[in-house]
Every structure is written in structure tokens, then in C-alpha cells.
């Protein structure tokens, strides 16, 4: 049986550590999407990104994915047709805290109401 990917999981009862783990996963995938593109790992990451179903994700996941892409590899938005709908992502209605010891974070994250 295949396990549900973290970005599709129910986030009921999640705390900051769970959202931080989700962010780290997404961020690492985006960061290395084009690393050694000829390598097996690089192809797998890019394939996984291109296969993501954005409509099956929570608002929090969409925001974290969009912020990760904008901060690391904005060209992915145009390269992967499935990511284009991320351009319509709105800031969260509340502050999503990934690290309770920080008061703010990178500007793109602040813009979407994420403390990172």
C-alpha cells in the first residue's frame, strides 16, 4: 500500500513542528529539482513536482509550496503547467507559525502570513 504524500495529508491537529516538516520536505524538493538533472534523484524530484495535484492540497500547503518556489526557483511556476494555479494563492487568514522562536521571516513568507 502506498503512503499518502505529506503534502496531501490531513492537517487536522497539526502543530508547528508538523508544518515545519512539510515545509522542509517541499523546500528540499524545490531546491534540488534541477540538481544533476541527468541523475536519478533529480529526475524523480522534478517528476514528483510535475505530478502534484495542487487542487488536492490544503491552503497551508499551497502557500508553503508557493513561497518555497518563489524563494528558490521561480522558473518552476512556468516550467510546470500544474503549478500555474499557484499564482492565484492568497495569503492565509491567520499566521502560520513554522518556528515559534522567530517573530518574522523572509519577506515572501511574511507576505503570505507565514512565520519562518
Explain this structure to me?
With 116 residues, this protein is mainly α. Helix content is 44%, strand content 3%. The protein has five helices and two strands; from the N terminus they run ααααβαβ. The chain has a two-stranded parallel ribbon. The longest helix is centred in the N-terminal third of the chain and has 16 residues, at 16-31.
Summary, kept brief:
This protein has 116 residues and is mainly alpha-helical.
Strand content: under 5%
Main beta sheet: strand number and arrangement?
Answer: 2 strands, parallel
Strand neighbour order, sheet with most strands: 1-2
Number of strands: 2
Helicity level, as a percent range?
A: 40-55%
Contiguous low-pLDDT stretches (5 residues minimum) are: none
Cα Rg: 14 Å
Structure annotation, total helices: 5
> Could you spell the SSE succession in H and E letters?
HHHHEHE
Assembly level: single chain
What attributes does this structure have?
single chain; 116 residues; mainly alpha
Topology:
Blueprint (H helix, E strand, L loop, with lengths): L15 H16 L8 H11 L8 H14 L2 H5 L16 E2 L9 H5 L2 E2 L1
Parallel strand pairs: 1-2
Helix pairs in contact: 1-3
Amino acid at each position: 500500500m502506498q503512503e499518502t504524500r505529506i503534502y496531501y495529508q490531513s492537517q487536522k491537529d497539526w502543530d508547528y513542528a508538523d508544518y515545519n516538516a512539510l515545509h522542509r520536505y517541499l523546500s528540499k524538493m524545490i531546491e534540488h529539482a534541477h540538481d544533476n538533472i541527468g541523475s536519478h534523484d533529480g529526475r524523480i524530484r522534478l517528476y514528483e513536482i510535475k505530478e502534484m495535484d495542487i487542487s488536492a492540497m490544503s491552503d497551508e500547503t499551497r502557500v508553503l509550496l508557493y513561497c518555497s518556489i518563489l524563494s528558490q526557483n521561480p522558473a518552476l511556476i512556468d516550467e510546470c503547467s500544474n503549478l500555474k494555479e499557484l499564482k492565484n494563492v492568497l495569503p492565509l487568514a491567520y499566521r502560520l507559525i513554522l518556528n515559534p522562536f522567530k517573530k518574522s521571516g523572509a519577506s515572501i513568507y511574511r507576505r503570505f502570513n507565514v512565520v519562518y
